[in-house]
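re: ur question from earlier - yeah i can do the single chain one, its not a big deal. heres the input i used so u can compare w yours
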Amino acid sequence: MNHDTKIGARIKMFRERGELTVEQLAQNAGLDPALVRDVEAGKVQLPLGRLTKLSRALGQRLGTFMDGVASRDPVVSTLGPDDANNAVPGDYPQIYHFVPLAAEKLDRHMEPFYIEMNPADASTPVSAHEGEEFMLVLEGEIEVTYGAEKRRVPKGGTIYYNAIVPHLVAAAPGTTAKLFAMVYTPM
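and the output i got, formated as tokens:
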């Protein structure tokens, strides 16, 4: 079972446990019912922002849909070249791809990711959701739109913010960036 099929199957399982129709889940998550059907069928690589909306609508933590098999603490992950090459597209595939780093940790409260980013264009919308985000720039430079302000974060720099404020994170214009990100979304 591939990554997208596993995520879709878990979303469908929780939807059915909650006795929700696809239309009800889509409405609760603010998504199109056709997208939810495609996700459940494993036809769509679900972006992180939309996965967050579905997890909230189903009353589950974000990682519930990316979890691997049960494991003992501590969980050690190694990011290899194949992982980076198989990164999942984010909300805006032209901007970023990500690799979940702790899918084997079933009882986690934070979601760590490795992310590769390109610059955004003027049409890329901002995002807002409950929780907090922390990022460490490993290579390149990122530009963060946070509310009405823009900040640049260079290699080695970090940023930590409240994700309810409309925000957009992308590589600085003319660059690419690699980063470590930690996302916390309350239940």
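The chain is about 25% helix and 30% strand. not sure if urs matches, ping me
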